[in-house]
Amino acid sequence: MLIRDRKAYTECVKLSLRTVDLSISIDDKVIVKNVSIEAMPGEPVFLLGPNGSGKSSLLKGIMGIPSYKIVSGKVIMDSEDITGLPPWERVRRGLWIVHQLNFPLSVPTYFLLEKIAARARANVNIKAVLDALGISHLYYREAFNGFSGGEAKKLEVATALVSRPICIMLDEPDSGVDIDSLRVIAGYINLWLRDGRTIIIVTHLGAIANFIEKEGKAYVLIDGRIVYEGRLHDVIRLVLEKGYSYFKGDGN
Amino acid sequence: MIYLGIKEAVRDYPDLVYRYGFKKLKVDEKSIDNGIFLYVPRNTALEEPIYTCFALFRKGVVQRVYNLVVIEDNSRAIGATGCMALVPEGAHISLEEVYVGSNASYTKIMIHNWLTENIISAVKHITLQSKSTYYDIYLNNSPLKSIKFNTIIEQSEGSSSRVDQIVVAKGYGEYSYDTKVNLIGTGASSELVSRSIATDNSKLVSNLTINAIGDNTKGHIECKGMMLGDKASLLTVPALNALNPLTMLTHEASIGKIRREEIEYLLSKGFTEEEAIGIIVRGFLETGFENLPDKIRSSINIVLDQISKAMM
Questions:
Q1: Do residue B264 and residue A92 have CB atoms under 8 angstroms apart?
Q2: A47 strand-pairing partners
């Protein structure tokens, strides 16, 4: 299903996102192993796990970024198998990623956002978007060049705001971010959830969860595998009490 | 205002021409073929740009041009010049003197569009009187045999200048740009911005120098290069020369190729690989172009869009 009229589409369409036995490799090394997760519209899904457990790779593989090769399994948006689609086709269907880390791009911030908005056929006031996020001073600056952690995260959120996606995956929106920035970012996630968008959030310790209105469910990813699944606050309590080493045995 | 050919200007307004012209550059009117004289008297604001075009249209021709631009005190003008070739063989030699009076402002846009065997030599001298401003935008996205382009800006008290130089070197062309700014007067300031792209087998050298001579001067150089040709070479040299301790001079410089991570980032934002390369190149060329009339800005954008599309 292609998005012909993005505005009308996003106002009425709600799509689930799931992976089925998904395995992803980088440079021929399998990083994500047989992962099956499911996210429903308006219900946040959290992916928790220690450094290097494959959380970011999972999101990038779902997004179809070429360096993250899907070696087996499927990515399903609603009822459509999008596993073989290039990333831009996934974006056309409403999938979006808010990256964790970014390197400086050789393009000004406003220019990047203008291009994304134009691709989404969204008539957006870029300055107003940046202003709402408190980063309008970065308008002419090279994207991500010399940005603080909070500024970079907010710009990534801005890319989602101007693109108006349906399924949004956020990679560690709470790392390297001050409390005020975290509240701003969480505010937009809450808006998206209320709007019925599908949200997947990668987080180390679940700091962002304190600001998300809906509880949702959580998966724990260890060494590329889902080892635990439960209600978010139960999972976070378990992680904080016992650490991730607890899940390296049989978490269940 | 007066706007006419330089030879006619020498004939009809010799006092005016020799008061301001033929001073800074070694040239006399007998050695030139053509050129323009733009004179904006004091207290005059020209809202519409003054357009000028020079074309090499005969095979093997050597075109010698001398331009004189005078913007007197408290006046304002915009000049847009296109230099182009209709035949691949030919040489263009250009000399230009610009005088910007006190509290006056001059914006100069120059677009070069040459062909593979053209040889170009250009020297430009700009004199800025007190509290004047000068904004120079130069674009060259054309193949050529060789170009040597020297710009010298001399600034008096409180004057400010900005030069945006955007060059895409192509084919086997040899491109050499040398821009020198002398901040002579107290409080003079300058910003030099260059965006250089070297493609194919081209050689591109961009020297940018700010000499801080007067008190409380400020200067900034920003030169960025992009390598898009395996056999191309690109040399950018930002030079800050402080001859007075009361100055603030800064620079930033970088050269690189398009990184895979940048492309993959844009893929994840909905663009194809070709579009991603085009966006990176187009964004790289953006320098801001502040306070330009819409007509001029859109003309520049057309050229920049053409450059990025050609790289896709």
A1: no
A2: A202, A219
The answer on B19 and B93 residing in a single domain is yes
Q: Residue A91 is inside which H or E element, if any?
A: helix A87-92
Which pLDDT tens digit goes with each residue over B87-129? 888 999 999 999 999 999 999 999 999 999 999 999 999 999 9
Q: Which residues of B touch chain A, with CB atoms under 8 Å apart? A: 224, 226, 258-262, 264-265, 267-272, 275, 279-280, 282-284, 286, 288
Contact call for A66 and B270, based on CB within 8 A: no
Q: What is the mean pLDDT of chain A?
A: 90
Under 8 Å CB pairs connecting chains A and B tally to 70
What is the distance between the terminal CA atoms of chain A, rounded to a whole angstrom?
38
Asked whether the beta carbons of A58 and A35 are under 8 A apart, the reply is yes
Query: Does residue A114 lie within any of the structural domains?
Result: no
Q: Identify the pLDDT of residue B283.
A: 87
Is B267's CB within 8 Å of A107's CB? no
Shortest distance between the Cα of B17 and any Cα of chain A, in A, equals 42
Please tell me the distance from the alpha carbon of residue A108 to that of residue A225, in angstroms, as a whole number: 38
* Closest CA of chain B from A248, distance in Å: 32
Confidence of residue B38 (pLDDT cuts 50, 70, 90): very high
Q: Which DSSP letter does residue B49 get?
A: P
| ipTM of model | 0.91
- Residues in chain B within 8 Å Cβ distance of A86: 267, 272
Partner-chain contact A66 B267, CB within 8 Å: yes
Residue B36 has pLDDT above 60, yes or no: yes
Q: Count of domains in chain B?
A: 2
Set of chain A residues whose Cβ sits within 8 Å of the Cβ of B260: 67
**Sequence-separated (6 or more) residues with CB below 8 Å from residue A4:** none
CA-based nearest distance B269→chain A, Å: 7
Cβ <8 Å between A107 and B286: yes
Residue-wise pLDDT tens digits, B172-219: 999 999 999 999 999 999 999 999 999 999 999 999 999 999 999 999
* Tokens standing for residue B251: 């620079």
CATH number at residue A201: 3.40.50.300
> Is the per-residue pLDDT at B265 higher than 80?
yes
The nearest alpha carbon in chain A to B261 belongs to A103
Rounded CA separation A138/B201 (Å): 36
CA-based nearest distance B227→chain A, Å = 13
- Regarding whether B269 and B236 lie in a shared domain, the answer is no
Burial environment of residue A89 by CB neighbours within 10 A (0 to 12, 13 to 18, 19 or more): middle
Does B136 share its domain with B215? yes
Mean pLDDT of A47-64: 95
Q: Is the pLDDT of residue A95 over 70?
A: yes
pLDDT tens for residues A237-252?
999 999 998 887 654 4
Domain of B162? 2-258
